[in-house]
Amino acid sequence: MAVSPDSELVERLRRGEAAAFDVVYARYGKRLYGFLVRLTGRRDLADDLYQETWLRLARHAGRLAPETDLAGWLYTVARNQYFDHHRSAALDGERLRETHMLPLPQAAEAPDEAAAASDTRERLERALADLSPAHREVLLLVAVEGLAQDQVAQILGIENDAVRQRLSRARAQLSERLEGRERGARAVQ
Amino acid sequence: MDPKDKDMGVGLDNDPLLRQLAELPAERPDDLTYARVRRRALAALAEERRMTQHPWLRPAQTVWQRAIMPTLLAGTIGAYLTWAVQYSANLY
User: Fold this and answer.
1) What is the number of other CB atoms lying within 10 angstroms of the CB of residue A108?
2) What is the mean pLDDT of chain A?
3) B interface residues, A as partner, C-beta within 8 Å
4) pTM over 0.90, yes/no
5) How many CB atoms are located within 10 Å of the residue B80 CB?
6) How confident is the model at residue A102 (pLDDT cuts 50, 70, 90)?
7) Do residues A101 and A41 touch, judged by C-beta distance below 8 A?
8) Interface pTM (ipTM) of the complex?
9) Is A178 close to B17, i.e. CB distance below 8 A?
10) Distances (CA, A) of A188 to A65, A180, A182
């Protein structure tokens, strides 16, 4: 079956075609969820924002501009909703602390190697969760989601140069935190 | 896409830390959530389409929700309270 380009899907979405929505959902649904889980650090919140993002696409489908970049649109809505939530959560210290709770990934491999890999992964997940949301999101969009620079700039609402700078700072902070965690882990052993 | 755009000048492909990030296991929604969100969004899409096909529905719905229904509800409650007060007054 031929793969529909996003531009064609936008056109069909504008006409309210359910089949086009299904294709978009299958293409971006799981990726978007992964992004939200790591951005929020909470599955329950990610679930809510995930649903709200897709409902917004459904309600806004008829008003999409023909040249809309679907991936960019979805990630923009998802991250804007997170930051709206984050701003209101910042008024509540306890909820803010909860934003740092990230469910641990489950190890899929067996014994020693898997344990070591899982340990490294776990430290990476935790170091990522410790970053500021702005740094976390740029790393997620670039390294995990693999989006292009232009798309990331558009999603974050900043210039390309600013994306590069933010990415570089985020990477440095991640590395710093990861080293701190590794030192801590060695000290415990 | 220009490879430089993808790389962003930070050595994305050669950076072990960013590569580790890219290799993190995917987080997926559970089947129930995935299906529930799809179902709700499709319902919203169908509703939106209905509104687009019948543009008069939206203002009619607004008038119903913001004017007629609250008035009817308030009227019913008012009538019931009046009846209840009168009934109680007649008892004593």
Assistant:
1) 9
2) 85
3) 1, 5-6, 8-10, 12, 15, 17-22, 24-29, 33-34, 36-38, 40-42, 44-46, 48-49, 52
4) no
5) 10
6) very low
7) yes
8) 0.76
9) yes
10) 55, 12, 10
B29 closest CB neighbour out of A33, A38, A174: A33
User: Any idea which residue has 């292009």 for tokens?
Assistant: A148
Give the separation between CA A127 and CA B20, rounded to whole angstroms: 12
Write out residues in chain B with pLDDT < 70, as ranges.
1-13
Using one digit for the tens of pLDDT, what is the confidence trace for A52-99? Answer: 999 999 999 999 999 999 999 999 999 999 999 888 877 666 555 555
Backbone angles phi, psi at B13, to 5 degrees: -75, -30
Q: Cα distance from B17 to chain A (closest Cα, Å)?
A: 7
pLDDT value for A34: 95
- Please state the rounded mean pLDDT for residues A10-27: 94
Instruction: Please list every residue in chain B whose beta carbon sits closer than 8 Å to the beta carbon of residue A178.
Output: 17
First to last CA, chain A: 55
CB contacts, 8 Å: B11 with chain A: none
CB spacing of B18 vs A139 below 8 angstroms: yes
- Closest alpha carbon to A79 in A127, A124, A117, A45: A45
Select the residue of A37, A150, A175 nearest B5 (Cβ to Cβ): A150
For residue range A30-39, what is the model confidence (pLDDT) as tens digits?
Answer: 999 999 999 9
Interchain CB distance below 8 Å, B5 and A55:
no
